[in-house]
Amino acid sequence: MSGRGRNTPLLVRDIAHARSGDKGNTSNVNVWVYDPVDYERLKRSLTAERIKHEFPQLVRGAIERYEIEHLYGLNFVLHDALEGGVNASLNLDSHGKSWSYLILGLPLEPDPG
Amino acid sequence: MAKEHDVFRIGTGAGFSADRLDPAVDLARRGALDVMVLECLGERTVAFAHRDRMANPKRGYNAHLERRMRALLPACHEAGTIVISNMGAANPRAGAARARDIARELGFAGLKIACIEGDDVSDRVPLSQKFMDEPGTLADVGRPIVGMNAYLGADAILPALEAGADVVIGGRLADPSMYLAPLMQRYGWDTADMGRAGAGTLVGHLMECGMQITGGYFADPGVKEVTRLAQCGYPIAEVTADGGAVITKLPDTGGCVTEATVKEQLLYEVHNPAAYLTPDVTADFSRVSVKAEGKDRVRVGGASGRTRPEKLKVTVGFDAGFMAEAGVSYAGLAASTRGKLAGEIVRERLKQIHGIASHPRVDLIGVNSLFATAGQTPTQSEDVRLRVALRTTRQEEAELMLWEVESLLCCGPAGGGGFRGSITPAVLTKSVLIDRALVEPTFEMFVA
Questions:
Q1: Is the residue at A98 inside a domain?
Q2: How many C-beta atoms surround the C-beta of residue B437 within 10 A?
């Protein structure tokens, strides 16, 4: 699928798709696996703690994770994660529209099976 | 004007203030729509619209209102399609009057344009009002307020529809409410029926961003393919009396409607899926079903709802001065190194020579810009653009920043070129809550 070598870890983008949106200084990123088989691995790989750990400068507030089990999706609410929000941020992307690709670029946890 | 469908057909003809027009005209002509919604207002758009109105009392509505009305009214009139929009922005009265004049010019005598007002609550929110979601009060901002708009719900739109409006133009009408209101009217849903309100709100939420559900904001070549995005079609919701719906689009338009496009939109700008707050309902999207039932047809259902929020959200806009942006490009050998040096020079001079206290942001586009704060490791690039951004309440500081960046052409690192700079007005928005009793929506019918 990715054309990478066998030792290269799979990324979230290899099994899932995502979209980000904003409200004030809060970003949300929803993530959905293409194949339900991969859902447990996604849940194991994308914990709220992991995302906080990966982007400590960006996500200054708490992170909540909602699980939409029957549709095999996760929704992350990232508080204080838009550099002040569209009012204060000087980022070209002041809405954090590209944050979905921060999540999609994270390596997956190895599959135990 | 009611049609003999077994479903109610609602189309979206704009999902934000600058959305495309030609696919909306196509949908109006061929979509056999009962209603077309034009959603054109965001928190910042309304603040900018207030500034427009202050500069000219006859303006303050969506800049594309005239072109949209001229292009869409003939097809909507022909098809008996009701148009509902928040294009009135900060001046619904002027927007509705303009729509009426255009209808007259087009020869649609008798066309009824409802103007909905009452969202402007600037005369009834005290400066001591606390923010909705952060510490502090409106007075703490210390900048001039340009406008305050309460989110109006379906109950503000219904009377206009019941009075036979062909076009409804309001200001801060909540996005999903523009879809829920015609559904309530068509199917006679009780305003106290929170289950139906949740179902109609799901339809509105899915549809309100236009092409974001038909393949827009989705394509990732090689991973998520979308065909003919340049001809992408706007969405259609075929809604039944129970609130269930099929999301689709005109068959020969570009884009796609799949379970994946619908799911991404389902939680777009949603926090807790079980508690999506609108003026009409606390909607629950946590058990929504999403099922493809043919090419570009996805059935959705299973949304529910609980009691609507006690208070209404109000967006308060402030004049925040100026936003200055300027850039110079570097290409070829060691471009990143030269670009980085250029950024350091500007930073130093703005502080040391000009004493500008506001912190500029310095990006190296092509190396590290959008993800800079996220801590992504910069790499070398042979084509980079220095970008400097500064927010300030003083025009002189904005001008000085542009001057400094342009001066790099002779005084900065080797080979810099392509200076561009701009200074634009800046607004700041905050949210507060208001008692429903203080918000009194009204409508007035303008007849062409």
A1: yes
A2: 7
Is residue A110 very low, low, confident or very high in pLDDT (cuts 50, 70, 90)?
Answer: confident
Asked if residue A18 is part of any domain, the answer here is yes
* Number of independent structural domains in chain A: 1
The answer to whether residues B300 and B200 touch, using CB atoms and an 8 Å cutoff, is no
pLDDT, residue B376, reads 78
Q: Which residues, given as ranges, of chain B have pLDDT below 70?
A: 1-5
Q: Are B179 and B209 in contact (CB under 8 A)?
A: no
Cα–Cα distance, A29 to A18 (Å, whole number): 7
Domain for residue A87, yes or no? yes
What integer pLDDT is reported at residue A24 of this predicted model? Answer: 86
Q: Which residues in chain A are closer than 8 Å to B387, comparing Cβ atoms?
A: 92
Q: What pLDDT does residue B1 have?
A: 41
User: Between chains, do B270 and A56 touch, taking CB under 8 Å as contact?
Assistant: no
Mutation test of the interface with chain A: which of B358, B373, B376, B377, choosing the one with the most A Cβ atoms within 10 A? B373
pLDDT of residue B3: 47
Q: Phi and psi of B332, rounded to 5°?
A: 85, -155
Q: Please provide the DSSP assignment of B333-381 as one string.
A: TTHHHHHHHHHHHHHHHHHHTT---SPPEEEEETTBSTTTTTTPPP---
Q: Does A94 touch chain B (CB under 8 A)?
A: no
Show me where the domains of chain B are located.
Answer: 8-120+151-312+438-447, 316-431
B273 contact A CB<8A: yes
Residues 344-373 (B) with a CB less than 8 A from some CB of A:
360-361, 363, 365, 369-373
Distance CA B77, CA B79 (A): 6
Quote the pLDDT of residue B37.
Answer: 98
Name the nearest CA neighbour of A103 among A86, A83, A78: A78
Question: For residue A79, what are the domain limits?
Answer: 12-104
CATH of domain B316-431: 3.30.70
Looking up residue A58, the CATH number of its domain turns out to be 3.30.1360
Residues in chain B with CB shorter than 8 Å from the CB of A23 are 269, 271
Chain A residue closest in CA terms to B273:
A66
Residue B142 burial by Cβ neighbours in a 10 Å radius (0-12, 13-18, 19+):
exposed
